[in-house]
Write a structure and sequence with these properties.
Blueprint: H1 5-23, H2 32-35, H3 38-54, H4 59-64, H5 70-82, H6 89-108
Helix pairs in contact: 1-3, 1-6, 3-5
Length: about 110
């Protein structure tokens, strides 16, 4: 049995989405990302990890699953890593409370 990198990456992204869904219950507002609560730090770490993992998905993966876009996944990671001191809390908050649910659902339905 050979290693399927795309399958492993999808599994990891789903796991990170689940972690975010679990930890976001401790986040009450966008300001939690400014005050750097433990839950907010955990969520940001998982967002970064999702972006890094998405970078390892193959081009064929994105061709076969056109509803999932590589660039926004990578951009969020880069935004958090490189602009951490200047992030807009509402952008992160929206991602955590809207986009993650959509991403997880899409990842659970991918064709590999």
């Amino acid at each position: 049995m050979s290693f399927n990198r795309d399958k492993a990456c999808v599994s990891e992204i789903i796991k990170r989405c689940s972690c975010i869904q679990e930890n976001r219950r401790y986040i009450s507002s966008a300001e939690d990302f400014v005050s750097e609560t433990m839950a907010a730090k955990a969520v940001i770490w998982d967002l970064e990890h999702i972006g890094e993992t998405a970078n390892h998905l193959s081009d064929d993966f994105f061709k076969n699953n056109h509803e999932i876009k590589k660039i926004p996944l990578k951009n969020m990671r880069n935004y958090l890593i490189h602009d951490y001191g200047h992030i807009e809390p509402l952008v992160v908050y929206k991602t955590v409370f809207t986009d993650i649910d959509n991403l997880k659902k899409l990842m659970e339905q991918v064709k590999i």
